[in-house]
Write a structure and sequence with these properties.
Layout lengths: L3 H17 L36 H11 L20 H11 L6 H10 L8 H11 L4 H11 L8 H9 L5 H14 L2 H13 L7 H11 L8 H13 L5 H10 L4 H17 L3 H17 L3 H18 L2 H10 L3 H14 L1 H19 L7
Length: about 375
């Protein structure tokens, strides 16, 4: 049975993979490790004596570095967890629960986002309660609107309009409205929200901001290790509910309506070209494929399929697997990744991580894994 610390390390790798493989239009095998079996040939006339003193792992790694081009080499760290406290989950949650007694807006923000809701209450109740005391916090309202767009919660149009107004230049906020109105079967609301999204000047899902908030909340606790808290924050993020299925159903049902078809194509293109994260980019491509398939537009459907495969191919880069392991051992690397993801997007932040991992490997070699 895994200990909590081994589970957390595994969660880090799985959640990184989930960010990269959130969507698959076709069945794709996902593997955290791309392993190959290296066969060493045995020659009949091999008279070389057997080396009874094999090289140490560090020496092997050093030799490998020397034999590998420094242009793309990333040191391969072992999957050793850095978390020593098996009581992490209990201790962190106990601290978060205690924040309910605070008068600080920042601490109550952490409570609203991450505490286990009291009996009879929901996460949406906590978020709304915070908004009543500290109104118009766009991070709170984005999370609340996201929950409203799922099938679990019921909200009204006025609340969604308030949420959108708090960050109306952000296309990601309008997407929550689109999903909500699609769930309600409100065609006018969907079309108005798609038009609003298209006109926005930015698209920020605030993935990094939510994880950063989690690390900041726990910075004053006994579970303040930054890397540990990033791993846990990624796990929380991966478990967030999404109401994206509602707009897909709306587009499928509207394939005979030119207004809806054009709106879905506009939305799909905007998600593909403007979203920060790979998941909504994939969703945007899939949305366009629904329309082109219904129209029997084979050429455009095949073009979108190529775009899907291109994203999947990028996500399966072996270098990123290695960089992810190294990131788990190097706080600066993981901080840079977290700082970049909301500003330059998931794909570009991955490229930066790979470049930084190569540089770190050149400078430190296997010792980079010892942090």
């Amino acid at each position: 049975m895994f200990s909590n610390k081994k589970f957390l390390f595994l969660m880090f790798l799985i959640c990184i993979a989930l960010l990269l493989f959130n969507y698959r239009d076709t069945t794709v095998k996902i593997s955290l490790f791309d392993t190959t079996s290296t066969v060493i040939p045995f020659f009949d006339n091999n008279d070389e004596p057997i080396d009874l003193n094999p090289l140490s792992p560090k020496e092997v790694q050093k030799n490998l570095i020397n034999q590998t081009s420094n242009d793309d080499y990333i040191v391969e760290c072992e999957s050793e967890p850095w978390i020593d406290d098996d009581g992490y989950f209990e201790a962190s949650q106990q601290y978060i629960q205690s924040l309910s007694n605070s008068t600080s807006a920042d601490r109550l923000l952490g409570y609203a986002f991450f505490a286990i809701p009291p009996e009879g209450e929901s996460r949406l109740d906590l978020l709304r309660a915070y908004n009543e005391t500290f109104p118009n916090n766009s991070l709170i309202l984005m999370e609340a609107a996201s929950l409203c767009s799922t099938s679990t919660y019921e909200c009204d149009k006025n609340f969604i309009d308030t949420a959108i107004a708090s960050d109306k230049v952000n296309g990601a906020m309008w997407l929550n409205g689109i999903n909500f109105f699609a769930k309600q079967g409100d065609d006018e609301g969907v079309l108005r929200s798609i038009s609003g999204l298209v006109k926005t000047s930015m698209f920020n899902e605030k993935f990094g901001e939510r994880i950063t908030l989690y690390t900041q909340v726990l910075a004053g606790s006994n579970t303040s290790d930054f890397r540990t808290n990033v791993v846990s924050g990624i796990g929380i993020e991966a478990a967030r509910a999404s109401g994206i299925s509602h707009i897909f159903n709306w587009c499928k049902k509207g394939v005979g309506d030119n207004t809806k078809v054009n709106a879905c194509l506009d939305l799909g293109r905007n998600l593909t070209e403007r979203a920060n994260m790979l998941f909504p980019q994939h969703m945007g491509i899939a949305m366009q494929k629904i329309i082109y398939e219904a129209e029997n537009n084979i050429e455009m459907h095949e073009l979108k399929e190529k775009e899907t495969q291109k994203l999947i191919k990028f996500s399966k880069r072996k270098q990123y697997d290695k960089a992810s392991y190294l990131m788990a051992h190097d706080e600066k690397l993981i901080r840079n990744w977290l700082n970049n993801i909301d500003s330059i997007g998931e794909v570009e932040s991955i490229k930066v991580v790979i470049k930084e991992a190569i540089l770190l490997s050149q400078q430190k070699g296997i010792s980079a894994c010892e942090n």
